[in-house]
Amino acid sequence: MSKKVLWAPWRMEYLQPEEKNDSCVFCELPSKANPREALIVDQGKAVYTVLNKYPYNSGHLMIIPLEHKAALTDLHASVLHALMEGASAAMDALERAFHPDGFNVGLNQGRAAGAGIPAHLHLHVVPRWNGDTNFMPVLSETKSLPQHLLATYDAIKENFHKKA
Ligand SMILES: [Zn+2]
Predict the structure, then answer these.
(1) What are the φ/ψ torsions at residue 38 (nearest 5 degrees)?
(2) Near ion ligand 1, which residues have CB within 5 Å?
(3) 9-35, pLDDT tens digit by residue?
C-alpha cells in the first residue's frame, strides 16, 4: 500500500471536521480523563498542545488556548506568549522525535481563511520533510490511522520538554 493512498481519506476528513451543535471540541478535549486518548501531548496553564486527528502531515500539532476565543486580538498578551512558547516546545519535540527538514507554523482565523473550527482559535505546527515523501520512516509499518496517531503521539510525548 502506498503512503499516498493511506493519507488521502484523512485529507477528505479534514475538509469536513466534526462539529457538534452546542459544544466546542477544543474546549472539551482537556477535560477528557485520558490525555493519550485526547492526543494531548502537553497541558499548560494558558494553552495545551494536541496532535491533530486530521493532519496535513505526520506530527501535525495544534497549540490551543484554554479560552474559547475566535480572534488573535481577543487574547491576552500572556496567552499570546504561551502560544509561541507552545509552538517552540512543539517544534523542539518534533525535531527530536522525527528530524523534519522544516516547519509550517500558522493560524487560520475565520472560515474564509480555512479554519476548521473558527470559533476557537488555534495555532498549527506542521513538520515538513524535503519532498514530504519520506515522512515517518520509523513508523512506516503502522497500518491504521488510530495506531499511527498513537505511535506518533508516544514519540512526541517522549520528546517533550527535553530541551536542556
Ligand atoms: Zn472552545
Answers:
(1) -80, -10
(2) 24, 26-27, 68, 120
(3) 344 444 444 444 568 999 999 998 899
